[in-house]
């Protein structure tokens, strides 16, 4: 170890004009500080000779170079012992290195570690800042705070992250161009590890490896991978991270992420080749598996196998696709593609799936209905969102289905969320005080009832003060050409005589709403009176009256499951044009009552102070009878069914809040409201339902939300009789005449890998009066906005589920779920699941036992279904896992200011 005052020999070889070397030798006593100044001076003399190549290399990089020993021979810098070489965005650690100061060629040997940094700046919100700060391979520096054109606060940051992580025993290349060759190449990225005899890093960042092996199993580093792909040659293509479009948005996922293209490869299991792969591709963000595989058995499908493979084509703008190839024992072969395309301001999604269905009536009793299902079934969906300018957006969707139940059979979650998808296109422009939109909705699928808008134009004026008068204005204006297109049945009704069919109708409609508000603020009370009107004009209307019951009958006749002929009272086209005027008067009064307890603290309850805010309010709405009877107006949406209103809404909102870092967290929230009607409505008295909505997270891992409605006005009749197995029984479960409905969901996670869920649903037949305002926003739990609502459902169910570890190492986890139907008197489903993690891949098994009560054609039975899936879990500790203290030092060096960086061969310190 060299200490200050040691006798050291420093050798300089400076190139003379004409190429004759001049050798200078000094045998002097030099301190580390003296060596620093001598070395920098010599390097400064060398720099002009290499100036033409010096776009990547900088003097500041050379000043940061470290080694235990450093010599200069001709134009070469020879360093050894704990060598650290920074150049541009790259860093190299080695035992020994030789750098040519003229060409910047470098050769390094022994325990080489090669890193590359990506740095960028941008403006992000607080949520994104928190995600970047949590990322293990990213360093974030806050530079300032700014606002965008919408007034939102953004944070200016500089983010730097580690991407390339290469190890080797020998490296040869050029520090200026970024071209390097490695021997005994090892690299670890986010989703895989690569070992190769030879690796070549090109200036564009691509890496070509030969005699290589790739795996998402860490054991590959010890030549004992559970699975791998070996090949003669592979190309590793980096994810190009830039601030263009998505840079900081995707930084934590893009860093250290590579796509892989392999030719002439073999899939290996425990080192044994099992499958030849002439070509293999691994997209970014995916472990190097051959295919995503899922198989099992379902009552509707029989045995099935689902295969998919994802491909990434470009990064920014990005384009990717997932190919699907499936087989269902009872249904046949199926396939499709799911593709995404995106630019800085646009995103397009395309989905197509088709099957030659051997038995399209297998899943449900579709044969009983009046729609024919073809054997060739499909779903084609295209969606696009484009930000044309910062204030102009386009949104569009197109969906073509072979039949109304395709998604119910093969993509149940999509069907549950949107059973009748629409096709539309819209342009939306935001201005300072209003917004404008142009909207088109067309009918694509004949088996769905659709209100077509061909087209619709709308202006919305947000609430804003008129000059400095304390009078606020809010309004809207729309023009639509509307067409009600009822569905078309393939088969006539089975029962009853044939009546007149559903008749389409259409009309031009102009609608405009205008309201004025005058808020009055007192010491403890805020009062906001309002007055406004709505004017609506129709080019066509009906002479024949169609009341609410007639309209409900039309929709029952248009139900996909309707099998009977129903007598209809259709709209006619003899009413001519009509204009309707509706006025509204209202007043809302509210106050806030609050208290704060600063000293309330509990780590278990996650309390850091407590604040209670209570807001009681009263809202009165009066809408007189419209100038035109709604029974003569075509129905397209709820605007056409507005009728007189006269009610008072009493409500109270409660919130408990506590601090969470620099923000507030809602600990408990509840709203209660009740309506008092001042006019009469057939079948109801003047007292409306009492409704409550509550959410709470009182301590870590626990949450509860519930909603219930109480028949405060005694409007309900007796509960209907429950029939079980053809016999009437006493009502099981809750038997309360005054309770309309109650939903409650509880979730508790006491520890990692443990979770309990409990859900309960009760719903009885009941009705509720309409409660709406054209100029005030009202919380609506179960009240009909423009219609009195009637609910015929009578159900009572409870669900319980849990997840738990099975083995002490927590690699094997289990799950269980069950649901019980009180009215049917049985558990209608049991769900069991087991998942086992095998270091770098995971095996999941689930078994569902469903109770099928049957009907007149089928016997009661239990229907078993199971599913098995195996998938790769990727690396347990990507990038940061194998890092040593050298990487930590590099982090520290990079973050330090240039003026504070020291140069020197540290003498072992």
Describe this structure in words.
This protein is mainly beta. Helix content is 7%, strand content 54%. The protein has eight helices and 46 strands. The strands form five sheets. The protein has a 26-stranded antiparallel barrel. Strands 3, 4, 5, 6, 7, 8, 9, 10, 11, 12, 13 and 14 form a twelve-stranded antiparallel beta sheet that branches. Strand 4 and strand 5 form a beta hairpin. The radius of gyration is 36 Å and the shape is globular. The N and C termini lie close together (9 Å).
Principal-axis shape equals: globular
Separation, N- and C-terminal Cα atoms: 9 Å
Largest sheet: 26 strands, antiparallel, barrel
Number of helices: 8
Q: What is the mean predicted local confidence, pLDDT?
A: 81
* Secondary-structure-derived class: mainly beta
Q: Which band does the percent of strand residues land in? A: over 45%
Number of strands: 46
Could you list the spans in which at least 5 consecutive residues all have pLDDT below 50? 1-37, 47-55, 242-247, 876-909
Rounded to the nearest angstrom, the radius of gyration is 36 Å
Task: Indicate the percent of residues in helices.
Answer: under 10%
Keywords:
909 residues, mainly beta, 26-stranded antiparallel barrel, 12-stranded antiparallel sheet, 8 helices, 7% helix, disordered N terminus, disordered C terminus
